[in-house]
């Protein structure tokens, strides 16, 4: 039993959408700076964004806005290795029509496949 309340699918999806919107704005702004013929690796930027912020603070900007935090099962920081593994898990979650994200709905601890892979939980703060 946790001393914090696990975050369900809706706030987590909203946080993810906020993060994607932020990344989209950054992409558009960078297109003003970078010449049109320069290819910018946006998947790599997204992986770095999610990995860095989740590993550093336990929160991306979207999770911060919705007062969510990623931790290990005991409530401690997950660090960069687990954050990277969790971020890669997002890609696996999305492949079979988002089934890995939808898993959160039926999971007793409200964990998606990416959480199960990395041994993480998302709590309301």
Number of helices: 6
Morphology? globular
- End-to-end distance: 16 Å
Largest sheet geometry: 2 strands, antiparallel
Low-pLDDT segments, ≥5 res: none
Class from secondary-structure proportions? mainly alpha
Count of distinct structural domains:
1
| Rounded radius of gyration (Å) | 15 Å
Topology:
Blueprint: H1 9-33, H2 42-57, H3 61-65, E1 68-71, H4 79-94, H5 99-106, H6 113-118, E2 121-124
Antiparallel strand pairs: 1-2
Textual characterization of the structure:
- This protein has one domain.
- It has helices at residues 9-33, 42-57, 61-65, 79-94, 99-106, 113-118; strands at 68-71, 121-124.
- The radius of gyration is 15 Å and the shape is globular.
- It has six helices and two strands, in the order αααβαααβ.
- The model has no long low-confidence stretch (mean pLDDT 91).
- By secondary structure, it is mainly alpha-helical.
- Strands 1-2 form a two-stranded antiparallel sheet.
Which features characterize this protein?
single chain, 125 residues, mainly alpha, two-stranded antiparallel sheet, 6 helices, globular
In short:
By secondary structure, this protein is mostly helical.
């Amino acid at each position: 039993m946790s001393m914090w309340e696990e975050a369900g699918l809706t706030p987590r999806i909203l946080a993810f959408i906020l993060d994607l919107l932020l990344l989209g704005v950054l992409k558009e702004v960078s297109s003003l700076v970078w010449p049109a013929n320069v290819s910018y690796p946006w998947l790599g930027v997204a992986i770095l964004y999610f990995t860095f912020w989740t590993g550093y603070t336990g929160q991306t900007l979207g999770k911060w806005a919705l007062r969510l935090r990623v931790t290990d099962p005991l409530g401690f920081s997950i660090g960069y290795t687990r954050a990277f593994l969790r971020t890669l898990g997002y890609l696996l979650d999305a492949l079979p029509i988002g089934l890995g994200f939808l898993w959160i709905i039926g999971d007793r601890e409200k964990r998606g496949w990416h959480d199960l892979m990395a041994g993480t939980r998302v709590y309301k703060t």
